[in-house]
Every structure is written in structure tokens, then in C-alpha cells.
Specification:
Layout (H helix, E strand, L loop, with lengths): L1 H14 L4 E6 L6 E5 L2 H12 L3 H7 L3 E6 L3 E7 L6 H29 L1 H15 L4 H16 L3 E8 L4 E8 L9 E2 L6 H8 L2 E5 L2 H5 L9 E7 L40 E6 L9 H47 L11 E7 L7 E7 L4 E9 L4 H20 L3 H19 L3 E9 L4 E7 L4 E4 L5 E3 L17 E4 L5 E5 L1 H4 L11 H10 L6 H16 L8 E7 L6
Antiparallel strand pairs: 1-2, 1-4, 3-4, 5-6, 5-10, 6-7, 8-9, 9-10, 11-20, 12-13, 13-14, 14-15, 15-18, 16-17, 16-19, 19-20
């Protein structure tokens, strides 16, 4: 042993005396040299260790003998006698320590060599999974690598489909000409389901193997199944929190309960192996290796699902942005009523798309049409109804100058859609007739429509019918005066219902106060900007709860 030989050489250098360490293992007759500082001392002491009493024989030959405890053997350190035997005693104590450390090192090296194939497998699978974002695409190769290392001739990779209540095969090995059917999660005797329910590994040997998996265990008597679990976060959570009750698809699977002992939910799948050479049983080491592989696979599957979810979210964001752009393009440019009228309009959706809309129409030189609508709710469904309402309104306001006739025509166009979706639309349509000095309007349930007089006085254009979708009756028309310098200001309820971080509404009074304080020289754009500035100052960073729309229209007094 190299380490003990170095110790003997160090003894020689320190004391100037040779030394040899003999040992006799249990069950052996003859002693053997473990280490020596020279060949000469080996030959001179050989007869000493063959004697029954080694210590007495050594003294008779002129050597000092020190007993060395080496664990599973009896050892003697033989040296020429010296003035002090402290060095021999020190070596006698050091030798067992050196032997133990060397044995531990050699044992670790041996185990490393024995586990080389397993380590190589884990590395290879890590490389395999890291090279693909889809576990399904490498499932066949993964099965081959695992089965070859463990020594299984047949294997199957089952993926969890909880919506269908099944474990579905996505890859198999050694089943040529045989179809491996999906395994129902309520097949409690199947080894794959047992592993799934436990969230760990299961083995089956002997006669029970065939019943546990008739397809894989054909002709063999050993099965190994291991669950593929998604990784845990590894984060400890402290504190007291309310209990969250969540309804999942798992509840729809008869007889299914999520695996116990795991905090990460039901497994993502199961690996099942069979066919050890000679029908031998799978060992504890095989179970550990399969569990290590399943952890790698579970991590890869979990990461792949996160990647897919991220891509889907990005795609949804792009689609929502496109939908918002398309929706805004449906709304008319305020400049369409020029030069006879001036207009400013803005729609801010609570989500990417919303249900608010407006319409501006240059009916003729003396008349300007102004319409505002608000579809109940917000989001995609509201946006679809909004597009239909806007299209219908664009047609009917040009065909009928009478506001009540136009609103009733829009109501008939939307009736079927509003009935099927159980939605409603508040709608106010007004026609400014500067020649007649009149403002004619029909209001179906829209609460925030005003005439702002040149003198700052406000007139509410009150609703004369419920929102479209609540009733099929007619919509009456009302007439108010219109003087040079008057303005129309239409709002949707998202403006007055804007809330701050404390859930306090902005309310209608501050908006009306702002309108009353605007100077007579203010343009429609300046009035619109002032209203939205008040909304933003009120809500701060709090997201909008509803879509916000403001439309301001006037007909400037002709110059000269």
C-alpha cells in the first residue's frame, strides 16, 4: 500500500532506523508484508512473524515489536530497538487512520466506477432533454437510454391526460406488433396507476406482475413503474393565509385522488419498465436511478409547459394589440365633420379591446350627427357587439336624419345579437341643426349626454327609453335649442366610475364642474384633454375598471 510505504520511509528518514509492517488477516496462516522501508528488514524479520509469540520472537532476534490494530487483521510494526519508542507508538496509531482513509477512498472510487453508467445516463438524458423543448420528440431515445442502463427489454412512456382520465402512451420499447392501450386512472390494480397515485416508484414480481401490466409483463416476472412529477419550487412559505379551494379536472376522474406526500400536484406521467435478463427483480438501485431520471423528465416537461404558456401569452398579447388597432380604425376621425363643425373624441379601453364607440356624421352643410354608445361589459364579446352596433349606426344615420328613426333602426339590426348574448347597448344620437337653431336627440338609456351652453350652463339630454336589448318599444325624439357657441359633450359611464386605489369613484359632479369652468374660447380638444387629465389625476396608477370615452363637438360661430 503506497500510503503505508510512504509512512515507513518517513520513519526511516526521521529515526535512521528501518521499519516493516506485517499483517495476518483473519483466516490466514501466513503473515504478509504490508509496507517496509527496505527489503533487508523484511528478510531479517520474516522468521519473527512466523512464531506463535511474535513479540517474544522479535526480541530474541533483536527487534522491537509493536502491535498495530488494523481492523480486520492483526499487524506488527517491527523495528530495530532504539533509545525511545515514541516514534513507533506514533506510527502504530497513525497506520489505522491511514488504512481507514484509504479504504474509504478506494470504496468511493469503486462505487463511482460501478455507477459510471448511471451517471453517464443521467448526463446523456440531461443533454437530450436540454436540446429539445418537447419531451415527446425525444421520448423514444429516452426510453432506450434508460432501459439499456437498467437492463430492461421493454418499456413504455405514459403521459397524463387528466381531462380524459387516462395515462396515454407516447413512446414504447420492445413492443413490436403489440398495441399498448391507454390506461384509465381508475384502473387501481395497474402498476402505472399505482405509481401515479403514490407519486413515487412501484415494483411487482412473480405472479402479480402479469395482472399489474399484462402487456409489458408478458413472459417475465418483474416490473418497475415510476411517476414523473413536476418539480417543486423549493421555497418555504411562512405566515397565515386564507385557505384557497380550487376545483380541478382531477375531481372529474372517478376514484382519482391526487398523490399523497407531494406538494406539486398530480404527476405528469409514468415510466414503466419490464423484462430483466433471466427474469431478475429490479433492485433498490434501479428504483433510485429511475426516480432520478423521472425527476429530470418531469423538470423538462414542466419547463416545456412554461415555454408553451409563455409563447401563447405572447401570441395573445399580439392578437389583442392587433384587435385594438383594428377596433380603433373602425372609429371615425373627428375631422370628418369639418369644416362646418369641430370635434374631438377619445376611447380608452379597460382591456385591449372594449365596448365603447362613437360616430360622427356630416349630414349636410347645416346638420352634424353625433352618436355615442356603450355595450355592457368589456373585453372581446363587448368588442364584437360594438363592431356590429357601429356598422349598423353608420348605415342608419345616413339613411334617416331623424334621430329616433335611426336609433330604432339600429335596435332592429342588433335585436337578435343582443337577445342571444343577453347584452345591452346604451345609445344617444343627436343632430345639430345650426340653420334651425335646434338640437334633436334620441337617447336609449345613455346617462351622460350634455349640451354645454356658451354661457357655461349644462343641459342633460335625458334618456327617453331603456338601453337597446331591454325592450323592443319605440324611442321618442326630443328637441332643444342650439345657439352659436354651444357644445355637445358625451361621456360613457367609465369616466364617472373611474376609481382610485381606495375604490373611490370620480363621480359625475367633478366632471360637470370641470365642464362649467371651461372658458368659452376652449376648443373641443382642450375640453377633452381636461376631462381625461382629471380622470388620470384621480386614478393614479390604478387600472381602469371600465372603458372610458369622451366626445366633444361644436359648430364655431362664422367669422365676419
Amino acid at each position: 500500500m503506497t500510503e503505508i510505504s510512504a509512512l515507513m520511509a518517513a520513519f526511516l528518514e526521521a529515526t535512521g532506523r528501518d521499519a516493516v509492517l506485517w499483517e495476518r488477516r483473519e483466516g490466514q496462516v501466513h503473515a504478509r508484508v504490508l509496507a517496509a522501508s527496505s527489503d533487508a528488514i523484511v528478510e531479517r524479520t520474516r522468521g519473527c512473524v512466523e512464531a506463535w509469540d511474535v513479540a517474544a520472537s522479535a526480541r530474541s532476534h533483536g527487534f522491537a515489536a509493536h502491535l498495530v490494530a488494523t481492523g480486520d487483521s492483526v499487524g506488527w510494526l517491527l523495528t530495530p530497538p532504539g533509545i525511545d519508542d515514541a516514534a513507533e507508538r506514533l506510527v502504530g496509531r497513525v497506520v489505522p487512520l491511514v488504512r481507514r482513509l484509504v479504504n474509504e477512498r478506494d470504496g468511493a472510487t469503486k462505487e463511482l466506477v460501478e455507477r459510471y453508467e448511471e451517471i453517464n445516463l443521467l448526463y446523456a438524458i440531461g443533454e437530450l432533454l436540454g436540446s429539445s423543448t418537447s419531451v415527446e420528440s425525444v421520448a423514444d431515445t429516452l426510453l432506450v437510454e434508460l432501459a439499456t442502463t437498467i437492463g430492461a427489454r421493454r418499456a413504455v412512456f405514459l403521459e397524463t391526460r387528466r381531462a380524459q382520465g387516462q395515462l396515454v402512451p407516447i413512446a414504447s420499447l420492445g413492443l413490436e406488433g403489440t398495441t399498448y392501450d391507454a390506461v384509465p386512472l381508475d384502473a387501481h390494480s395497474h402498476i402505472a396507476v399505482r405509481a401515479f397515485r403514490s407519486g413515487g416508484a412501484c415494483t411487482e414480481d412473480g405472479a402479480g406482475a402479469h395482472a399489474a401490466d399484462p402487456c409489458l409483463a408478458a413472459g417475465d416476472v418483474s416490473l418497475l413503474a415510476v411517476a414523473i412529477a413536476r418539480p417543486t419550487s423549493g421555497m418555504g412559505v411562512t405566515g397565515s393565509y386564507p385557505v384557497i379551494t380550487r376545483r380541478t379536472l382531477d375531481a372529474a376522474v372517478p376514484g382519482f385522488a391526487p398523490p399523497t406526500g407531494t406538494s406539486s400536484g398530480a404527476p405528469l406521467g409514468v415510466l414503466v419498465l419490464a423484462g430483466r435478463p433471466g427474469g431478475g427483480a429490479f433492485t433498490a438501485g434501479d428504483r433510485k436511478l429511475a426516480l432520478a431520471v423521472s425527476t429530470q423528465v418531469g423538470t423538462a416537461m414542466h419547463n416545456a409547459s412554461l415555454v408553451r404558456a409563455a409563447i401563447e401569452r405572447q401570441q395573445l398579447v399580439r392578437e389583442m394589440q392587433l384587435a385594438q388597432e383594428l377596433q380603433l380604425k373602425l372609429l371615425p376621425d373627428p375631422g370628418v365633420v369639418a369644416p362646418e363643425a369641430r370635434a374631438a373624441a377619445r376611447v380608452v379601453a379597460a382591456e385591449s379591446v372594449g365596448g365603447d364607440f362613437y360616430l360622427l356624421a356630416r349630414l349636410d352643410r347645416d346638420r352634424t350627427g353625433v352618436l355615442i354608445g356603450d355595450v355592457s361589459g368589456h373585453g372581446y364579446q363587448s368588442a364584437l357587439v360594438m363592431a356590429l352596433a357601429l356598422s349598423a349606426a353608420a348605415i342608419h344615420v345616413q339613411a334617416a336624419f331623424d334621430p329616433s328613426i335611426a336609433v330604432e333602426a339600429v335596435q332592429r339590426s342588433l335585436q337578435e345579437e343582443l337577445t342571444s348574448t343577453e347584452m345591452s347597448v346604451s345609445l344617444c344620437y343627436a343632430v345639430i341643426d345650426s340653420r334651425a337653431g335646434e338640437l334633436r336627440f334620441a337617447n336609449a338609456g345613455h346617462p351622460h349626454a350634455f349640451r354645454l351652453g356658451a354661457d357655461g350652463a349644462l343641459l342633460r339630454l335625458a334618456a327617453v327609453a331603456p338601453p337597446l336589448g331591454f325592450a323592443d318599444g319605440g324611442v321618442e325624439e326630443y328637441v332643444a335649442s342650439w345657439r352659436p357657441g354651444d357644445r355637445l359633450v358625451f361621456l360613457t359611464d367609465g369616466v364617472v366610475d373611474a376609481r382610485d386605489a381606495e375604490h373611490c369613484r370620480l363621480g359625475e359632479p367633478p366632471v360637470l364642474a370641470r365642464l362649467g369652468a371651461m372658458p368659452a374660447s376652449a376648443t373641443p380638444q382642450e375640453i377633452l384633454d381636461a376631462i381625461f387629465a382629471d380622470v388620470q389625476a384621480h386614478i393614479g396608477r390604478t387600472p381602469l375598471r371600465d372603458d372610458c370615452t369622451v366626445v366633444v363637438v361644436d359648430r364655431p360661430v362664422p367669422q365676419g
